[in-house]
Amino acid sequence: MLSQRTRDIVKSTAPVLADHGTAITSVFYRNMFAAHPELLNIFNHTNQAQGRQQAALANTVYAAAVHIDNLENILPAVVQIAHKHVSLGVKAEHYPIVGEHLLKAIKEVLGEAATDDILGAWAEAYGVIADAFISVEANMYKESREQDNGWNFFKSFIVAQKVKESDTITSFYLKPADGSNVPEYKPGQYISIRVSIPGEKYMMIRQYSLSQAPRPDEFRISVKREADKDPNGVVSLYLHEQVQEGNTVEVSAPAGEFILDPAKPTPVAFLSGGVGITPMIGMLETVSTTTPDRPTVFLHAARNEALAAFQVEVEKHAANMSNVKYKTFFSDKPDGYISRKVLEEFVDTAGDVYVCGPVPFMESIIRELHEIGVKNEQIHHEFFGPAMQLDNK
User: Fold this and answer.
1) Would you call 141 a catalytic residue per the annotation?
2) pTM score > 0.85 for this model?
3) 257: annotated active-site residue
4) Residue 391, pLDDT above cutoff 60
């Protein structure tokens, strides 16, 4: 339990963190990786280079300072981040390393303004927050390990099939190398793929949504091929160009909070842009097989027909449903985007809405959903990568 004095000191640093948070977290990551380069086997190097990881951590630290009196307010964020940590293989012994370098970064950036009282209060607060993460993640690891066909960290899977879905998206069907089945997962969850790429010093991990309803013996991920010079594309290019049927990759157990409740009968809408369709197609398939009478809307936005994946699958799943509306919008055609008028026509504002796609797409869609009367608690969205602040006001 934190003392009132500690909480007061931590709260008083919130304005400073708002101004200097990203500078602090940038120094933190630089120094931590210099001291512990082995951690580069866990972290996404591209998110580091682009500043996304630094910004995400700065937002989390700031939120902790603001809510230090009621840390339960940040529990949803803790759970979301913990899912990412578990899928990456973050362990309890990593937290003291993070704490040490976070405090050193605060001192380095703030200089004399980082008094002993401030550093002491943050050390105490970090201990409480770290314990919360460790506890939540221990429960997740236990649940993952103890479920049927479950495991912790990474396990070898064979690429059983590699299927081209569009000009840029290819599906990989993955089966356990030991011949076992896979654990049950919730529609919308993701797995991590860990690969060792020739010429790269460290292992690389990327998360990919599971793109079909649960099967007993396999996972399916559907990966967008990024442009050759896109720094985000190192793993996707490796999967597309070098990984073939019969090859082995390492896979984490399913994780994630962006999930569909398959038992709900109330209206649901799936709104996706680009590769954001990947978790949605698994959700649609689940509705079609478990609650086929559920009022359902499936809207997808793509640049053109060549880039639109899963069109045949959408039609196949829709054919099993009694109350479904679906449409794909191509931005190279007139009225080829999901506008407010489209949302008013298709979306039941009393139901749940799932949104996934590029950040500008999600910002625009969520803003328009608010305008037509959909409440925040009805809107579920998923980031590919570290969680960011959405500008949807």
Assistant:
1) no
2) yes
3) no
4) no
